[in-house]
């Protein structure tokens, strides 16, 4: 299934996308959770409710709603750096080397944006970049996950643009500031449930800027597989339903081109992953502070 959060008549709702042109609105069905995060937190009971509620849920044309990030307010939004050999090869031009293990960073959850929302080119930097990535959404609360059990903890998959402000990213090894500017975490367009993707490690991933193909990779090229990611993270802390893990980016980011090609207002970035869909975000100048 494709689980979506969306705006309709100025209200945030959730439902299931059907036939790629309509969405079954589950928000007002009896016993409805507050949103997809609460639905996932209910576990098997939540999915049983969904299937029962789906039959009578009103349908809306997809063209009449505005899609939001499937999990509009995740508890955690984490990114994995250097997870594609092709990206590490281009980064080697800057003297960066392959780390010995997984290198995770936080994206503060206030960076979340919808799959087709505008994203802000910061006033404080001209080094605004894109990174198309596969996102993994956690479906079960878990700690000390074993590799053989890891995929059962996954609710599904999304497309992520792990947008980065490169000079701010390099201020500290944590990368947190440069990865967390407001609007710099668009993802969606919906959450494709785990059962719909036969192999998340065999998906073509592409990124275009203004129609020019910049990234063309495959999740088969990931150095660390999803099972290893969940083992690593859950050894340190509890993963919770709705947490978003952005799993790394292949070669082709703008900052490592010669010369660098950073994003400017008016640019349109499209990230597409086979079997999931695409997100597309226009770059605008950062508005004045409220």
TrEMBL record:
Its cofactor is Mg(2+). Transmembrane segments: none annotated. Keywords: Hydrolase, Metal-binding. InterPro entries: FAH, Fumarylacetoacetase-like_C, Fumarylacetoacetase_C_sf. It comes from the Bacteria. GO terms for molecular function: hydrolase activity; isomerase activity; metal ion binding. SUPFAM superfamilies: FAH (SSF56529). GO terms for biological process: carboxylic acid metabolic process. Residues 77-284 form the Fumarylacetoacetase-like C-terminal domain. Belongs to the FAH family. This is FAA hydrolase family protein. It comes from Variovorax gossypii.
